[in-house]
# Entry
Amino acid sequence: MKAIEIKPGIYWVGAKDPTVRDFHGYKTQRGSTYNAFLIVDEKVCLVDTVKAPFTDEMLSRIRSIVPLDRIDYIVANHAEMDHSGGLPEIMKLAKNAKLVTSPNCDANLKKHYNTNGWNVSQVRTGQNISLGKRSLTFVQVPFVHWPDSMVAWCAEEKILFSNDAFGQHLCPNGIFDDETPRDVIFEECAKYYANIVYPFANQTDKALEAVKPLSPEIIAPSHGVVWRTMVPQILAEYGKWVKHENDGSALIVFDSMWESTTKMAKAARDFFEDRGVPVRFCSLKTDHISDIMTSVLSAKYIALGTPVLNENMMPTMAGFFTYMRGLKPRAKIGMVFGSYGWNFRLHKEMEEQLKALEWSMPVPAQSIKYVPTEVEIDAMHAAMEAMLQK
Ligand code: FEO
# Structure
């Protein structure tokens, strides 16, 4: 397998995983890549590795450029196994290589692997290594998206090796952003942000402020395409996401037992449509929670519906609710609704948990006994007017 040159002397030596469909619970319909990069200068430097089963693919691409004993530095920007899985093998084979990583990542790598015998050099923000004509400067970006996350900046080439930031779970035909339809890339980038980076918006905002003045010409993340033609666009998208901007749309997410909550969900959809608000309508019986999160990211209004089942949510809603709360979406106008038989405390409890996310909840939880009547739907519509007035 061959390396792909991204600039003279700088190569993509990662691996493609077109058939992966689950990434710790995130549905990856378009596969993924584990991007590693090789800089060949007076010194040879590998930036990140790949998921363990793809190590041979990475080694083969490196060997297409240099023998492994020519590698002087291996940079580990982040300890998560999709980028560090190849480290044990390459640290064994690249006998002259020094591992360059942050103190935090070094500690985390020790918890994942037997690092005895590894030659490690710890670096902190602002420190750099010279490769000859080029250098790499390191910036720790804690919680984007692990505490150990770091990026590497090559000022001479204006390339940012951004690790998980700006990535997408997408397995493109080529490797560059102009080789895959733009809509596909940005859709997957939004999904990635919503499912991976979302809880760390404040930290990502700070990282973004540090990156923008560098004016990178290339951003090389550790998943998906290498950005070379749409760098300003992806920085702008991140700029909106970290500020919790929305597109003014409504999102309805629900499950139902005997279709009563479906009736309420459809009534909520009609409410928004009648007022010209674009609506996304997601049944938890058919839509995957990681896809729904992309709509959570862009929505202004979010209505969550579940019937009461043994004083609790439907299991599908319980799973989604837990997942979504963990990702900490902010600046939403929310509503909870659903049918019940004899106990309706649940909807109020859900409402309180959404308030704890600092959502605005102007409509009291809408609980309807058994099957909704027209009068009850009219009352729900009337109550929902308060959402639009926010
Ligand atoms: Fe792609 Fe946080 O690993």
Summary: The pocket of MU-OXO-diiron is lined by residues 78, 80, 82-83, 145-146, 164, 222-223 (CB under 6 Å).
